[in-house]
Amino acid sequence: MTHSQLWAPWRSEYVTADKTERPPGCFICRYLTEASDATNFVVRRSDQTVVLLNLYPYNNGHLLIAPKAHKATLSELNDAELLEIQHQLVLMTESLQAVIKPEGFNIGVNLGHVAGAGLPGHIHWHIVPRWNGDANFMSVCAETRVIVQSLTELYKLLTEHLRTVGQL
Ligand SMILES: [Zn+2]
Q1: CA 53 – ligand 1 centroid, Å
Q2: What is the pTM of this model?
Q3: What residues sit around ligand 1, an ion, with C-beta below 5 angstroms?
Q4: How many angstroms separate the alpha carbon of residue 122 from the centre of ligand 1?
Q5: What are the residue numbers of the active site?
Q6: Exposed e or buried b per residue across 124-159, where buried means at least 16 C-beta atoms within 10 angstroms of its C-beta
Q7: CATH class given for the domain over 9-164
Q8: Domain map of the chain by residue range?
Q9: Which string of DSSP letters, residue by residue, matches 101-147?
Q10: Which of 71, 94, 123, 143 is the most buried (most CB within 10 A)?
């Protein structure tokens, strides 16, 4: 029995889907060119970076933070991008704390397929909120768990909070 993987129905669909049927190209770059932030769940854009809801979340509130530029490695990022990414991490953990009250966070970046990067061409940081017992809950429910808050509701809560603190 593994507790390392949190599970959601939409994530399962993503994992089992034929990879060749997924849209070609980079979804982060595509979302940046579209004027559909609410339906793409793009939470916030800054000069150099963008924050998105992960559509295949490991847990409620799972966010992605990426530079706007399609860059694959840490070495390619310039000072402005590095600084803004850190600012976004601070702002978004505060915002998540305010709206869904996690008890902890996992924050990190997967570099390369071998490390689990699903989109290796465009570097992105994950913020995964954690609650005491969120992994243990799986064993009770036969390896399944339910993320109770829909992406739409989470998007609304986060963007409302960011507006309240003058960040949108
Ligand atoms: Zn890209």
Answers
A1: 16
A2: 0.80
A3: 26, 28-29, 70, 122
A4: 5
A5: 124
A6: bbbbbbbeeebbeebeeeeeebebeeebeebbebbb
A7: alpha beta
A8: 9-164
A9: --SEEEEEE--SGGGT-SSTTS--EEEEEE-TTTTHHHHHTTT----
A10: 123
